[in-house]
Amino acid sequence: MANPxxxxxxxxxxxxxxxxxxxxxxxxxxxxxxxxxIIDVRDRQTYNEGHxxxxxxxxxxxxxxxxxxxxxxxxxxxxxxxxxxxxxxAAQTLRNSGFKNVSELKGGLAAWKAIGGPTEGIVxxxxxxxxxxxxxxxxxxxxxxxxxxx
Length: 150
Known about the structure:
150 residues; GlpE_sulfurtransferase; Rhodanese domain-containing protein; 5-stranded parallel sheet; two-stranded antiparallel sheet
């Protein structure tokens, strides 16, 4: 059976920019285009404290091999690290490993949080949401409050 919405919702073009602004990534998430992966190459402790919602943790050491085991080489990948240098190094490692559509998230997690992008993690779950912020704990509280009204 053919997909009934196949021609209604156009696909996003593949990642072609070496660097991506946080607004572009957020727009793509809001568009509902699931065919991409966000990789966080910071250390595991920092990742656990807070990261972009849905980002996969992968350490720099062995990054190319780890990504190759779980992702198609044609997959769109957005990567960020603890610094712009780490991000650039991770992106280059992925490109050298054969990944075609890799883009560095400019400004990393700080830029993402500055535009109210969704986050998750130990510290993030304890941080109250701002006007445009989104985190799982507050979303669950809102849902529970709304269910009580029904």
